[in-house]
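We close this part of the discussion by returning to an individual protein. Part of our work consisted of pairing the sequence of a single chain with a tokenised description of its backbone. The amino acid sequence and the backbone structure tokens for this protein are reproduced below.
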Amino acid sequence: MSCFCCGSSSQIKALRSSQSQLDNNDPNTPGANNDSGSLITKGFTLQVLTDATDNFSPECLVDVGSFGKVYRGNLRETGEIVAVEHLDMNGSRGHREFLVQVMMLSILHHPNLINFIGYCAQGNERILVHEYLPLGSLDQHLHDRSSKQNPPLNWYTRMKIALGTASALEYMHSKAIPPVIYRNLKPSNILLDNDFNAKLYDFGLSKLGPTGDKEHVSASIMGTFGYIAPEYEKTGLLTLKADVYSFGVVLLELVTGRRAVDITRPSKEQNLVSWANRIMKKPKKFPELADPLLQGNFPAQGFNQTMAVIAMCLEEKQTARPMMSDVVAAIKHISSEKLDDNVNSPPLEAGVESNDLVKGADHGI
């Protein structure tokens, strides 16, 4: 069973205070002062993390993201293998987003969110430490075909990843108090463990959601082109349904194997949602949307139902989009459907059992 962190009154007060100060560019956001109700998490010295990564050696470098460079580290005191994310102070992501990450990761706890271990804020250094996931991101497995180490994902693995991602958003929207809008959902922010369970990370753009009678919060328009909900892009008014739209784009990527935006394709196919919307108007053409790498190995009914979920998530009007709890229920059902009798079930990746999705859904994964 997942352990939902719903937040004590002091934590909620700290979150609201922190978010307010962040919105006003206040550098004195609470960090680890228990007397003031601030959030507590483990702090690392720069020396400990320098030792863990062999002085941030290129040999330990595993990824370069928008936040900075990610290293594989070995904490000498415990022998624990961790991911050490070193903020690039000259990049587009700054100290403010570092504070947001620490704030969110300290209060949010769910099997499909990255396990946050601690941070370093020594001098000008800003470093995050979280669990190390050797399989990397969904983006690498779905779109990086240059590596033979990443075989094509089969249908059931894709649905398992979709279910885990949806469950994480459901927790943030419905279980966390106050609710949290993730605001940056995309395949590169979905990491995979050895059993292909999805774990969201990079909470630098996350925002505390509306409470009480409020339906939205005002926010500067931030995110990644191709995943931003149209109403948020037009007005700057942010709701939980913006995440639902982004999830619809990611689910469409899982089904088609295409990127949300791909300038290497013909002009009419460069924007995935626009291209797919034209085809989704004719249900008989749904099979044209399937990733060729699936080689037709998916249940026809489940595929059509997935397209229906995608269409609802991508509704232009935010009020017409489903809640993430409804999306989770739908994907659990889809995941339980077997391949048609006349289609052989493809082999699953190492560590993935054919009934993992159904078991995972029953246990809140």
Notes: The longest strand covers residues 68-74. Residues 138-362 form a domain with the Transferase(Phosphotransferase); domain 1 fold (CATH 1.10.510.10).
